[in-house]
Amino acid sequence: MENALQLALTFHNGIIYDVAFDVNIDQTQVVYQPGSTAIYKEVGLSKSVIGSKEKRAFTLLLGISASGDLLPFQAIYKGKTAQSTPLPNSADFAEAKALGFLFEFSATDMYWSTFDTMCSYINSILVPYWIRKKKLLGAQPDQECVLWIDCWSVHCLVAFHTWIDMTWPWIKY
């Protein structure tokens, strides 16, 4: 109940008059090679499974506005260089980039969002979306906007909240 009241107050005080200024983001794991020894094989055929202990996955960050606008995705891969991400000559890569999708590496041994990838998402996808909507709707540049985030560890970092407050003071979360 307290959260609902805080949200109502944010909408009222920020004079948030269009639902495009309300965006919810979430993250999900996408597995493209499960860590398993299960394979398809002919009965009686002996086969070893390479990488059976290694799961291949990435994190997909999705955003949608209350107006129904689906924002470009951010895909985060395990690894410390761009070689961890899809190759530019991959099928449909150029189209995905043209649509604003981000393919990023975590710079860690995990494929989860980090402080840097969250900042990248906000700077490269979310803020440009809101700037376009503000121009389209005739809103002021400092029009407040609401970002819904959940309790992923990176979202709870004081440093992340401080960065948003200092960089984009019109974003309320």
Number of strand segments: 6
The whole-angstrom Rg is: 20 Å
Report the sheet with the most strands, covering strand number, pairing sense and barrel closure: 6 strands, mixed
Spatial ordering of strands, largest sheet: 4-3-2-1-5-6
- Shape field: globular
- Can you give the mean pLDDT? 85
Tally of helical segments: 4
Question: What percentage of residues falls in helices of 4 or more residues?
Answer: 25-40%
Per DSSP, what share of the residues sits in E-state strands of 2 or more residues?
15-25%
Order of helices and strands: HEEEHEHEHE
Class of secondary structure makeup: alpha/beta
Total number of distinct structural domains: 1
> What's the end-to-end separation, in Å?
16 Å
Low-confidence stretches: none
Ordered list of secondary-structure elements with their pairings:
Blueprint: H1 2-13, E1 22-33, E2 56-65, E3 74-77, H2 93-98, E4 102-105, H3 115-137, E5 145-148, H4 158-167, E6 171-172
Parallel strand pairs: 1-5, 3-4, 5-6
Antiparallel strand pairs: 1-2, 2-3
